[in-house]
Amino acid sequence: MRIDQFSNKKQTPPESILSEIRLNRLVRFGSCWFRFFCYIAELNTESRQKDLVKWVLTRRTTNVDLEAADLEGDGIVGAAEFVLYKLKEMGKINQEDILLFMDEFENLDFDQSGTLSGCDLKLAQPAQM
């Protein structure tokens, strides 16, 4: 047996292990702060979004709004057009999204009636084999 095996001296781990431990603690500490700031930013964003929704729902609708909401350009704003306009105002949907949905609708509207039926779906989307 070696004499140093029985010594009461506390042995220190190698420097590489100490560096790894320090780095691990630093990463965990930084991660906690990062999550904290993300949480604060999310709360702030939610608050601003709620304020925007409240403003959109309580402000007076003008003729300019009706013209902007009239997607079909027929001078009449239906419920669907009005809802889409309000969603755009709230930032929940954008014009590009609407155009994508309209393209899909037009592709599914096989008989070009302006409405969708089960028959349209069968004709526009033939069964996959």
UniProtKB/TrEMBL annotation:
List keywords of the entry alphabetically: Calcium
Do you know which InterPro entries this protein is assigned to? EF-hand-dom_pair (IPR011992), EF_Hand_1_Ca_BS (IPR018247)
Domain of life of the source = Eukaryota
**Name used for this protein in its record:** Uncharacterized protein
Organism of origin: Fraxinus pennsylvanica
